[in-house]
Design goal:
The chain is mostly helical. It has helices spanning 2-13, 25-35, 50-74, 77-92, 101-109, 117-130, 133-136, 138-174, 187-194, 221-226, 241-249, 279-288, 290-303, 307-334, 338-357, 364-375, and strands spanning 181-183, 229-232, 238-240. Strands 1-2-3 form a 3-stranded antiparallel beta sheet. Helix 3 crosses helix 8 (138-174), helix 4 packs across helix 5 (101-109) and helix 14 (307-334) packs antiparallel against helix 15.
């Protein structure tokens, strides 16, 4: 067992292990004679031209490394021990001739008589070449290649999922207002202004800092995203997100008299209140959808994130997507730069991965949940 582990480590540390088996035809013939000195039949390589030996060697190398790749990724220790035990029992009973091709290969790769991983690799290679396993057991290597590809895909997906979970945790830690405020389409700013009795000439600006929500010439995309207009669920007022976040961390003047913060534009409480009911749809999805549930469990048990924090994180994802799409459209209208367009599209692609992690496949349910949260008010 240790010899096989040494061989796997050799393969991982050696940049191109195929080089260990890249031998000229004459050396390959010599190696076959050394490993199979007493043949009851003629050598397989005898009578072959140098070109044929090279072709056969290449096929054997390819077959062997396909099997080793699969072995290194998926072959369970129990399975390896069973194969080793059966081969050893046959050897003790003087039945080495009854070894299967794979048992013969396994014993060569784990031979105690060979001291270096490279020698064991060459021994295994010669078993494959001499026995023409690349042809006789082609189906084995094809199945191993398919399984290795699937395992690699699963490994890549797991790595991507872990990276996304780290990103979700970071988002969770940065949330200050996303659980009670959501981004809105820019078109609603004008509509809301026209539907009030007060004429608002600054509908496109934050009422706190008076900066434009869409001035691509003065502000970067990152700055516009950071201070994109959000609507407070408890009163309906719209302010720039960055200003609202700053308001939420500004020390209270008289905390004993006013323990909870209110909307910066009115006296409605935005702290110490119940979570808006619209988030119940998100909560239900996270607790019922299989993939979302897996993500939720890992965040709760591996990262110590609370379920409610996960709900708020999805709400933040919804809000950021609205802002990205609206600003991307604004880039088109204003003739923004290619850099601004690429940046927004890249961010939307990242948000798509985050949505997938939360179990949203396609736009159907996501659109329904997103619109429900965006349009909801508790005022």
């Amino acid at each position: 067992m240790r010899n096989l582990r040494d061989l796997r480590e050799f393969k991982q540390e050696y940049n191109k292990p195929q080089k260990a088996l890249s031998m000229p035809p004459g050396e390959v013939r010599k190696l076959e004679r050394e490993q199979f000195p007493t043949l009851s039949h003629s050598s397989r390589l005898e009578g072959m031209s140098d070109e044929q030996v090279s072709q056969a060697s290449e096929a054997a190398r390819k077959w062997l490394f396909t099997i080793l790749d699969y072995h290194g990724r998926s072959m369970e220790r129990g399975h390896a021990m069973r194969m080793f035990r059966l081969a050893v029992e046959k050897e003790r009973e003087g039945r080495k001739g009854d070894w299967t091709a794979l048992e013969q290969l396994y014993m060569a790769l784990s031979s105690l008589e060979l001291t270096s991983p490279e020698d064991r690799l060459k021994a295994g290679f010669m078993v494959v070449l001499h026995g023409n396993l690349s042809e006789r057991l082609r189906d084995v290597s094809e199945a191993a290649a398919m399984r290795t590809e699937r395992l690699q895909y699963e490994s890549d997906m797991e790595a991507e999922t872990m990276a996304m979970l780290d990103q979700i945790v970071q988002r969770t830690e940065s949330i200050k207002v996303d659980h009670f405020a959501c981004a809105i389409p820019l078109s609603l700013l004008t509509a809301i202004a026209h539907n009030t009795s007060v004429v608002d000439d600054n509908a496109g600006c934050c009422p706190i800092c008076h900066n434009s929500y869409t001035d691509l010439s003065e502000f970067t995309v990152e700055e516009l995203l950071a201070d994109y207009p959000v609507r407070i669920k408890y009163c309906g007022h719209i302010v720039g997100k960055a200003c609202l976040e700053q308001w939420m961390v500004t020390p209270k003047i008289d905390e004993a008299k006013y323990p909870y913060r209110t909307c910066p534009l009115c006296r409605v409480d935005i702290e110490g209140t119940e979570t808006p009911e619209a988030l119940e749809v998100l909560r239900t999805h996270l607790l019922s959808q299989r993939r979302a549930g897996e993500c939720l469990r890992r965040l709760v048990y591996d990262y110590g994130v609370q379920v409610e924090e996960c709900v708020e994180t999805v709400a933040a994802c919804i809000s950021e997507e609205i802002a990205c799409k609206e600003l991307l459209a604004e880039v088109g209208r204003q003739g923004g730069s290619e850099k601004q367009e690429r940046g927004l599209k890249a961010r939307l692609e990242q948000l798509d991965k985050e949505k997938w992690t939360w179990g949203f496949k396609g736009d159907g349910l996501w659109k329904q949940v997103s619109e429900a949260w965006m349009n909801s008010t508790d005022s």
